[in-house]
Automatic annotation (TrEMBL):
UniProt-recorded name of the protein: APA family basic amino acid/polyamine antiporter
Highest taxon in the source lineage: Bacteria
Transmembrane segments: 12-29, 35-55, 82-109, 115-133, 145-165, 177-196, 216-240, 267-289, 310-329, 335-354, 366-382
Signal peptide: none
UniProt keyword list: Membrane, Transmembrane, Transmembrane helix
Entry membrane topology: Multi-pass membrane protein
Locations listed in the record: Membrane
Length: 416
């Protein structure tokens, strides 16, 4: 049974913005400034350019393949089932870790001391229920969360502009190096990775060939503007003081002497975390649905609930996995692992776009080439531990699929 097409341009843009303008904007500046120094805005530009190249590949593929699953479906169609499986597996494992991180970030801002994990688990449960009630409810809630987040960030930008003209000059940042800028770009890249959520929901978008490319470009462009304004406010107001700040945006508010603004930032951070978590859960659910349809994941997850037209079993399975991680795991080491999976996912998206015929091409061929090279460059900047763990988990998935194929053809087994 196909999914119902209910998402229009405004819905798709809201889901993309909700994915990109997430909890990272409230926490990423300290680590990024620590490696990139005064070159942090250059690193932001590098990350945005790589994201743009990847976005055009995703948009081009989504227009030709308006189905659920994102790069899992695209790579399967353009390169082959194995490439599709690796893309889908990387997306699922990387983004499940990201979901847990978003839930914990929300709890850090919203929960009383000592209650972070239970509150995070409750948040995941609530958003899974929202997703199970239908995609139009998901889009409506995402729009509300995006508006709250943007209001909070607007307050930060305004406070930063005021503080920069009325307070003392902040401590200068260290001079950038090429490798430092690259590391900073690797950290900042994932602020833009949410545009893939639009593509993974291609089966639910009205007029996908027209809507998805427009939504991806609009959402990415909006995120770039927001990050540039917020990053400038942090650099001009805090300078090197941001390196030791756990909440740099709250410190921007404090430097401006706006005590009420601190509450607004806390509310906005919680809303951003929930918005990113909601969009992530939705996108993973559609990828799991697509993989289950091909039996690359258990076929029982391919069932669509007839009343609300959503992959309810897939959503519940993902939610349960995220809750388990939230309750038992230390997530700090999972960040690099998540990055590894997502970069491989986009690498395969660019490779799939390169395989498309000329008639399907909407953008210059050089863009997917640059996108693939950018993904390789950024993944090479990750810590070696993250690369080793990520490679091991990908290998586990590949081995499991190879074993299923070797067992022999049967009903419900994946095609090679």
């Amino acid at each position: 049974m196909p999914l119902a097409r209910r998402l229009r341009l405004a819905d798709a843009v809201a889901i993309g913005l909700g994915s990109m303008i997430g909890a990272g904007v409230f926490a990423v500046w300290g680590p990024a400034l620590g490696v990139a120094g005064s070159g942090v805005l250059i690193a932001l530009g590098v990350a945005a350019f790589v994201a743009f190249c990847n976005a055009t590949s995703s948009a081009q593929l989504a227009a030709a393949h308006p189905v659920s699953g994102g790069t899992y479906a695209y790579a399967r169609a353009e390169i082959g089932p194995w490439a599709g499986f690796v893309a889908g597996w990387c997306f699922v494992i990387g983004k499940v870790a990201s979901c847990a991180a978003m839930a914990m970030t929300f709890a850090a801002y919203a929960a009383p001391e000592g209650w972070a994990r239970p509150v995070a688990a409750v948040a995941v449960t609530a958003l899974v229920i929202v997703n199970c009630l239908g995609v139009t409810r998901t889009a409506a809630l995402t729009r509300v969360l995006v508006v709250v987040t943007l209001i909070g960030l607007a307050v930060v930008v305004a406070a930063g502009a005021g503080a920069a003209t009325t307070t003392a000059t902040p401590p200068p940042l260290h001079a950038p190096t090429a490798y430092g800028v690259l590391q900073g770009a690797g950290l900042l890249f994932f602020a833009f990775a949410g545009y893939a959520r639009i593509a993974t929901m291609g089966e639910e978008v009205v007029d996908p060939a027209r809507t998805i490319p427009r939504a991806i470009v609009l959402a990415l462009g909006g995120a770039v503007v927001v990050y540039l304004l917020v990053g400038s406010a942090v650099v001009l107001t805090l300078g090197a003081d941001a390196l030791t700040s756990a909440a740099p945006l709250a410190d921007v508010i404090a430097a401006a002497g706006w005590p009420v603004g601190a509450t607004l930032v806390r509310v906005a951070a919680a809303a951003a975390s929930l918005g990113a978590l909601l969009a992530l859960l939705t996108g993973i659910g559609r990828t799991v649905l697509a993989m289950a349809r091909e039996s690359d994941l258990p076929h029982v997850l391919a069932r669509i609930a007839p009343r609300h037209q959503v992959p309810r079993r897939a959503e519940i399975a993902i939610g349960a996995t995220v809750i388990a991680i939230v309750l038992i795991a230390d997530l700090r080491g999972a960040i690099g692992f998540s990055s590894f999976g997502v970069l491989l996912y986009y690498l395969l998206a660019n490779a799939s776009a390169l395989r498309q015929p000329t008639a399907a091409r909407r953008y210059p061929r050089i863009l997917p080439v640059l996108g693939a090279l950018g993904c390789l460059l950024l993944v090479s900047s990750l810590p070696i531990e993250a690369s080793l763990i990520g490679s091991a988990v990908v290998l586990i998935g590949v081995t499991a699929r190879a074993v299923r194929l070797r067992i022999g053809p049967r009903s419900g087994t994946p095609t090679a």
